[in-house]
Amino acid sequence: MRILPSYDLDKIKFATDGTTFERAVGLYESGKVTEFKAKMDGFSAVVLGGSLYHVFVSARNYNHGSCDCYLGQNDTFCKHMVAVAIRAVTGGKPLSGEDKQLLSRPTCSGRLGKLNKEELATIKKSITVALRYIKPYVGPSRIWFAYQDSLQEGCNRLSAIVSNLPVNEQTARLLVNILLRLDKKLILGGVDDSDGTVGTFIEEIVQVLKQYAKLDSTCLQAFYELKDKKTCFGWEEPLLEIINGKIKI
After folding, report:
1. Which PROSITE patterns match (predicted)?
2. What is the pTM for the complete model shown?
3. Which of 74, 110, 169, 209 has the highest Cβ tally under 10 A?
C-alpha cells in the first residue's frame, strides 16, 4: 500500500524559501533522489550531491525529518529534504512549468478578461484558504519563526492567485476585498506583523491595482469601496488619489 503524505506540492512550494525550493527541484529533476522508500511514518532516500546524503522526511510534515548533510546535522532544513518531499508527493512524475513557478510577490498579469461564475467561486475559495495562514499570533516565543513562516506562506499563496487573474473591474474588486480583509486582520485579528510581511504584501497589491487602472478604467469603480475607510497605515491613499484626480494614471 502506498503511503500518502499529508502535504502536497503547493504546501512545499509556498512554505519553502525560493532558493531552497529551486535547488530541490534541480535535484529531483536531475534524478539525484535515489533509493526512495515509503515507510509507515515517512519517506527515506539517498540524495546524490557532493556526497551521498541519507534523508528521511515525515509523512505528516515535510519539513520534519533528518539529513546527514552539513545543514541537516545542524538541525537546519535543507534542499535534500525538500527534494525527497517532492518525490513523495509526485510519485516520481515530471514537474510541469506551473508546478515549478515561484512567485514571491504579486504581479499584474496584463491580461484583460473576466472570470465566469465557476472560476470566480474557485478563486474566492482559494483566497479564503490562503488567508487562513495569516492568523493571530498566540503561543510561546519559541513558535515565533514558525508563525512568521505561516504569514509568508499565506502571502505566497495569495501572490500566486493574484498574479494569474485577468484584469477587469470584477477582479479589481476581489483585490480590494483582499486588502480590506488583511487590514482587518492587522487591526482586529491579532496578526503580529512585526517583520512587515503582510504590510509589504498589501503595498504590492496596491501597485497591482494601479496597473489595473491603467489597463482598464472600469477598475476605478472598485476603488470607491475604500472611501471613508480608516486603514492601519494609509495604504489606500494612492488609490483614492487616482479617483479624486490628484494623480494621473
Report:
1. ZF_SWIM
2. 0.89
3. 209
